[in-house]
C-alpha cells in the first residue's frame, strides 16, 4: 500500500518542462553565429548577439504562461534540434505557432458564421 501512496505523491511533485522558460547558455550559440557571419556582416559580435538573445528571453518571459503548453513544448523541442538553442529562434517559433493558432480560430469562426447565415 505504500507504493501507490508514494506514486501519488511523486506525481503531484512533477513539474511540466514547458511550465518554465528554458535556460540556455548563449555563449556557444553566439560564438557560432558570429563565426558563421564572419564572412558576411562584419558588425556582428558576441556582445550584440548576447544582448539580442537577452532581449528575446525577456520577451519570452512576458508571454510564456499565456502561451498554450503544447506550443511551448513543441517549440522547445524544435529549437533544441541541430545545435545550440537560441531564444531568438524560440521567439520566432512561438510567434509562428501563435499566428497559426489565430488563423485557425479565425477560419473556424468564419466557417461557423457562414453555416449559421445559410440556415433558413
Structure description:
This protein is mainly α and 120 residues long. The protein has one domain. 71% of the residues lie in helices and 0% in strands. It contains five helices and no strands. It is elongated and about 60 Å long. It starts with a helix and ends with a helix.
Q: How do the helices and strands line up, and which of them pair or pack?
A:
Blueprint: H1 2-13, H2 26-37, H3 46-63, H4 69-80, H5 87-117
Largest sheet, strands/sense/barrel: none
Question: Which structural category do the helix and sheet elements fall into?
Answer: mainly alpha
Please tell me what the overall shape is.
elongated
**Number of β-strand runs:** 0
Oligomer: single chain
Total helical segments? 5
Kindly estimate the percentage of residues that lie in beta strands according to DSSP: under 5%
- Taking all Cα atoms into account, the compactness measure Rg is 21 Å
Span between termini: 62 Å
Instruction: Provide the domain count.
Output: 1
- Written as H for each helix and E for each strand, in order along the chain, the element string is HHHHH
TL;DR of this structure?
The protein is mainly alpha-helical and 120 residues long. The longest helix has 31 residues, at 87-117.
Amino acid at each position: 500500500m505504500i507504493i501507490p501512496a508514494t506514486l501519488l505523491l511523486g506525481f503531484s511533485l512533477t513539474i511540466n518542462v514547458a511550465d518554465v522558460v528554458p535556460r540556455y547558455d548563449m555563449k556557444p550559440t553566439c560564438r557560432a553565429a558570429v563565426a558563421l557571419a564572419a564572412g558576411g556582416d562584419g558588425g556582428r559580435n558576441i556582445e550584440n548577439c548576447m544582448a539580442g538573445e537577452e532581449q528575446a528571453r525577456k520577451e519570452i518571459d512576458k508571454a510564456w504562461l499565456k502561451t498554450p503548453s503544447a506550443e511551448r513544448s513543441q517549440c522547445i523541442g524544435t529549437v533544441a534540434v541541430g545545435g545550440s538553442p537560441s531564444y531568438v529562434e524560440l521567439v520566432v517559433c512561438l510567434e509562428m505557432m501563435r499566428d497559426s493558432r489565430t488563423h485557425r480560430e479565425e477560419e473556424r469562426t468564419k466557417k461557423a458564421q457562414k453555416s449559421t447565415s445559410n440556415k433558413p
